Amino acid sequence: MTNNQKEYILIGGYPAKGINQHPGGQVTATRLLVEYAKANNIKLNIIDTSQNSFPIPSIISRLKQAKKRIIKLNKLLKEKNIDGVIIFSSTGFSFYEKIFMSLITKKYNVQSFLFIRSGHFIDLNMSNKVMKIINKFLLKIPTFIGAQGNKWVDFYQNMNVNLSKVKLIYNWIKIKKENTYQTSDDQVVFLYAGWMVQKKGVVDLFDVIQKNNDLKSYTFRFAGEGTLFESLKERKEKYNLDNIELLGWVDEKNMLDEYKKADIFILPSHAEGFPNAVLEALNCRLPIISTNVGGIPDSIIDGYNGYIFEPNDQKVMYEKIKKLGESSEKRIEFSQNSNAILMKHHDFNKNCQHVFDSFKNKQGNNK
């Protein structure tokens, strides 16, 4: 390593090649951050936290894996001159493990950057007073906290986090240079991509499709699996919902083809950080219909490049589907408007650099 090369620890989902695991938002963000570091003479020591979510591993298994990661973190901090530790986190057990890791970095006088990716973290703290009190205290531990949108900034302010430590950094992607989006009114295709679980709002979308016969002229394609997959498959067959296609999991290469086939992307989720599926759809310049959750309304602006509605509001969801489904002109307008949003919020190089720039005025290690 050259004398002027910075060295960091990255804690996040980074499964080894050949591991058959769906590339979720955290894994994709981690891979791109690693790619940026390699291209910019930055040394990264990676502690992989990836796991399959279905079925959820037992608490014993998770504790064993957490212990291994904590031992590795201690070893790296003890043996190397680390400039900072970047920590991606989900909610629940993941959050408390990552907070403990942030605490360990303090022992070595190394700065930590905690980036919570799950929008459920906001909901849990807003609905549970005891959890909110505990987590207000725990959020004081990381040196910096990443926020995926202005709603996240407002949330951290509500949690009494000093806003000087909150860094507004939107999810990042390699932006496609050309807008190749095409659409027509012949057969409008709506695409959903994500887990088939209650919190993603897939049941709400099924309800809207089933209740409104005038939507039968549209095709709704669902890419993903999860706990609701089989029951929704049975429902589709029972009620002859022939305009619904359940694709199961789709690999990365074929998923790009699904975005190209679609006219509109739809995500009726109840909670999000900033979902990778929305970012990929945005990058393909798809018009988007989504809920007003997490960082989404910063990048999907109602009436400009998509439509936004409140979670569980099936009436408004139906209205937005009809409004955008009936107008190829509006879809083309929204597609064209997405380019400015991508450049402003989601540039790969700018946002990754922003993460590393947070570690200014290195404190130095006490060794």
- The stretches of 5 or more residues where confidence is low (pLDDT under 50) are 363-367
- How large a portion of the residues is in β-strands, by DSSP E? 15-25%
Global shape: globular
Instruction: Describe the largest sheet.
Output: 6 strands, parallel
Provide the number of structural domains. Answer: 2
Q: What is the CA–CA distance across the termini? A: 20 Å
The CATH topology of the largest domain: Rossmann fold
Look at the structure and give the mean pLDDT: 93
Helical stretch tally: 14
From the helix content, strand content and strand pairing, which structural class follows? alpha/beta
How much helical structure, as a percent, in the residues?
A: 40-55%
> How many DSSP E strands?
12
Molecular structure report:
It is a single chain. A 6-stranded parallel β-sheet has the order 2-1-3-4-5-6, sandwiched between helices. The chain has a 6-stranded parallel β-sheet with strand order 9-8-7-10-11-12, with helices on both faces. The chain has 2 domains: 6-172 and 347-357, 3-Layer(aba) Sandwich (Rossmann fold); 189-345, Rossmann fold. With 367 residues, it is an alpha/beta fold. Helix content is 44%, strand content 16%. The chain has helices spanning 25-39, 59-79, 93-107, 120-127, 129-138, 150-158, 202-211, 229-238, 252-261, 276-283, 296-299, 314-325, 328-345, 348-357, and strands at 6-12, 42-48, 84-89, 112-116, 144-147, 166-168, 189-193, 219-223, 244-248, 264-267, 288-291, 306-309.
